[in-house]
Amino acid sequence: MWWSPRPAAQQVSVTTPVPAQAFRFAAPVLPTPVALIVARWLARALVLVVGLPFRFPIACALLAASLAVWHLFGWVVVAVAWSLVDVGLLVWWRRWPSSFRRWVGLRMLAAWRWWWVYARQWQPVLVVAGLAETYQERQYLPRIRRVTCSEWADRVRVRLVAGTTPADFENRVVELAHGFGAPSCRVVVLGPRDIVCEFPRWDTLATPIDALDVPEAVDLGALPVGLQEDGTPWRLRLHGTHVLVVGVTGSGKGSVLWSAIRAMLPALEDGTVQVWAVDPKRMELSYGRSLFARYADTGEAAVALLEDAVAEMQNRAERYAGHRRSHTPTTEDPFVVMVLDEVAFLTAYHPDRDVRRRAENAIATLTSQGRSVGFCVLAALQDPRKEVMNLRNLFPDKIALRLDEAAQVDMVLGEGARDRGANAHLIDPALPGVAFVRLEGSPMPVRVRAAYVSDADIDAMTADHTSAATVELHVVGEAA
């Protein structure tokens, strides 16, 4: 029957009588007529056909042109035309492969992955991941608006269901990555109900990165230290911030420290930047002593160095008061980078309680007051727990290399970082230097890899470059 309406409600017997209610009604049941179902299918087909030229304009235009030529001149002309097009594409591919891949290859790949990977599996993956919404026994799914491909990842633009938030997707990045067969997933918010899910097709950071070339000009707001997951340079900001680097032994903390120092070499030579180094292990930073304006390798010497930095910072702040609000590096007032390797030795492990207290007070003062007057603390440690380092929140920018436990990810990068895909505890031990970075003001962690600065590279740096500072090396250590 094309139209067979049934009663909207029917009276049923009471199973559990309640006072003042002799009978009850079941929920309304309105069967959908077959005619409406067929009409809905036809409407969807019409919308699909009308929308194809807007979604695939080039393919539809080529198809329409081929049909028109076939109708006017026959199939032979169509075959000859397509043969010429194929030859032109072949020449384009061989002569200009990069532009061919950008304008043709990646677009074809996006169309293929839209249909074969995402559209085909969209409903089951989202239902199992808990991202499908149900209202009045009807299921609502976020819709794929567009799929684009870059050299390394797929970007799936999604229209959210009204009433949901991007956090729902951010909390399901692991399920989405496994569901679509990607190494990871990252969610970028573009606007209200408009997000992009980024799925890498392979690990672009699996290959070690050699030490980067020393830049001719130093930009303290964007020092090149490695690569990001999308293949663009990873640039680390030091001026106007403080950076905390956390990772277990062998995770690559030295690569981050030395890459930052290497990127500042021209400024170290001209005296506009100074590096004051603390190296309790005497194994990491001791290679570059000639590059540092100040160096300390014992607890007492390190505390004296930190307190000298606090005094210099306060003197500079007193001179700036009422005259300027920001710092510009000069030879008279250089930008000072305090590089603290294994900072937990000073804050938790040193046997002298007074040394620990003084070191913690000095670091807290530098990190809370030093940004505006040209002082930066670049600290590295292994254990991010509060009892080891309770000053984590004073470092605006944080870098999480390989960690021991999943809970440590949120300790370093902030609450919710692991839900957004920053699985630093799952980094392969064979990938030193791979890390997740979370910058001030951005909740989204970015996967990066620091360049590896070898011992030979450091020897070359010390041979070719020297610090313009005149402070004699190791004076602080000897005075202690």
In words, what does this structure look like?
One of its GO terms (molecular function) is ATP binding. ATP binds at residues 247-254. It holds the Pfam family FtsK_SpoIIIE. The chain is of the alpha/beta class and 480 residues long. The chain folds into three domains: 65-95; 107-202, Threonyl-tRNA Synthetase, Chain A, domain 2 (2-Layer Sandwich); 223-479, P-loop containing nucleotide triphosphate hydrolases (Rossmann fold). Helix content is 39%, strand content 18%. It contains 15 helices and 18 strands. The protein has helices at 34-55, 57-73, 75-95, 97-119, 122-129, 166-170, 173-179, 253-263, 265-270, 299-320, 344-349, 353-369, 407-413, 455-464, 475-479; strands at residues 11-12, 24-25, 133-135, 138-140, 143-149, 153-159, 186-191, 194-200, 223-228, 233-236, 243-246, 273-278, 294-296, 335-340, 375-381, 397-400, 434-438, 446-450. The strands form four sheets. Strands 10-9-18-17-16-11-15-14-12-13 form a ten-stranded mixed beta sheet. A hairpin with a 2-residue loop joins strand 3 and strand 4 (138-140). Helix 10 (299-320) runs parallel beside helix 12. The longest helix is centred in the N-terminal third of the chain and has 23 residues, at 97-119. The chain is elongated. Residues 1-14 and 470-480 have low confidence and may be disordered.
